[in-house]
Amino acid sequence: LVSIGNICRSPIAEAVFRKLVSDEKLEHKWRTDSAAVSDWNVGRFPDSRALSCLRNHGIETAHKARQITKEDFQTFDHILCMDESNLRDLNRKSNQVKDCKAKIELLGTYDPQKQLIIEDPYYGNEKDFETVYEQCLRCCKAFLEKYH
User: Fold this and answer.
1) Is 120 assigned a catalytic role?
2) Confidence (pTM)
3) Domain boundaries in the chain?
């Protein structure tokens, strides 16, 4: 799960998906992580508003931001991102990777409510983080149903 800085949207999506997988007792089938296309926040914990939003839904995370690597494209079956800019960056990076096996697509592709883009809530408020959480929950549920 990839976003630009890996401190708002992608850690929320990662934590949501991890909880869904755990609730379904499918941990043995899934390896879940999140990363950034940029190196801006490497090593930082998620935004405090993202952590607060997750806690409000009974979800904890110890994620620290990292940048996507060549190995990610060779290791993961799916790389899901939040917006068109992420998608362009990931497709460009994947073209430089030999043996890229990851299917790269927007997480919003799986939204039953057809909200294709998950907007960055960084400059918003708690309500914007809640919107991201709700989108991620819908999309991750649908994705897990499709590939489970």
Assistant:
1) yes
2) 0.97
3) 2-147
Active site residue 111: no
User: Which of the listed CATH numbers 3.40.50.2300, 3.40.50.720, 3.40.640.10, 3.40.50.1460 matches domain 2-147?
Assistant: 3.40.50.2300
Per-residue model confidence as pLDDT tens digits over 52-79: 999 999 999 999 999 999 999 999 999 9
Active-site pick, 39, 120, 128, 138: 120
Return the percent helix, strand and coil in the chain, to nearest 5.
Answer: 45, 10, 45
Minimal CA–CA distance to 117: which of 94, 88, 77? 88
Of the residues 9, 18, 49, 138, only one is catalytic, namely 9
